[in-house]
């Protein structure tokens, strides 16, 4: 029997998922990976600890699958994009990995925004730099940690670090390479891009670029001992998790917008020609000669998780003890809130927004008669509204007439219906629970010839996809609320920087 291992590392959890060659999920194992926040705006983690947790998850997944490790034909990883994981010239971790939630480069990016760099970066690389982009983080390290900067031997993304741990090989793929330093036209590294950010001395530290489905190494003896995989198992290059998620639900193609409602609000459209705009990143798609246009912000269901942790802690404990889902427990409250009118709005900017680095979250229109259900409705609406901000931007540049939705919230039918009503378009939700891991598995399968390419999905998606059509009356109501949501955000813009300044003396 042939099976494939897809590794999916998010911002808090690393997962190992084993799939049959026909796409059937056989086993999944998870491990939490602690984050470190040693200073305000710093979000880091220990690379060695990440690998240990991933290896443990792989071993458990193999055991749960009921099949021997020898059945795994190939492996590929995906992981959070942007951020940086640095090795020295002896290929040892140089410092803690920096995650994509990190914003230590805020002041640096703000300075860049004021000069001609932003416009040239957009024209050359297809995107403007943001606070967790490799360009900004490496420039910050050069300025603030010069001794570390001088010792950089290899610049990796998170999934490239995991693949290095499996194989000992330094490499990256097209999707990850385009996070900062590629020419949007040629899709290859650009010396001018490094020069633009003051990083010309790092040219030799950039990893070689391979296709996502190319085999770039094999599991080493050390990695086999740690993970339970067979030594010599082929390892494909893998891909950026944003792309992996849409690939895993069949949305990495033209004519459809792929939406990932996770920690980040991710909204993507594949195009056959590059088109740049400051509202989205024009990055490399999996296939050469195609581009993945990504409109994103760190403002999606992480806000919902925050709400559950802060305001539903007791209910969560009770739900766990009763073997229930907290989402089921809250369903009645949510339905009652959506069945009545509300003055309450929430801007889901706890960790960032499309409106610049100084934005912050807020409830507006809150009264004494509102209850937790009303607040929860506002949070979910705010998440959907923020996705629409990005989807509307992409509509200005690319043709599509339907959306495909994945992410934790997508498994809740009420949440999926909310997206259909807010976007005023059909929303399809495929039944694949571990979409990003399956996207990685497709790359692994392509690497050993099980599939013609990573896009040759063996599943019949139509049989496992649920379609949500917009309700005309609710869509009209949501359109009015969305317009007010945006006006309120515009009104808050002059005050966000002032609010940040008040709290600049500490984390509060």
Compact summary:
By secondary structure, the chain is an alpha/beta fold. Helices cover 39% and strands 20% of the residues.
List the helices and strands and how they pair.
Layout: E1 3-9, E2 13-20, E3 25-32, E4 44-45, H1 47-65, E5 72-79, E6 85-87, E7 97-98, H2 106-113, H3 117-125, H4 134-144, H5 146-150, E8 154-156, H6 158-167, E9 172-173, H7 174-177, H8 191-196, E10 209-210, E11 215-218, H9 221-227, E12 234-236, E13 239-240, H10 241-248, E14 255-261, E15 265-271, E16 281-284, E17 291-297, H11 302-311, H12 313-321, H13 326-338, E18 345-347, E19 362-364, H14 372-397, E20 400-406, H15 413-423, E21 427-430, H16 435-447, E22 465-468, H17 472-502
Parallel strand pairs: 1-5, 5-13, 9-10, 14-20, 20-21
Antiparallel strand pairs: 1-2, 2-3, 4-7, 6-8, 11-12, 14-15, 15-17, 16-17, 18-19, 21-22
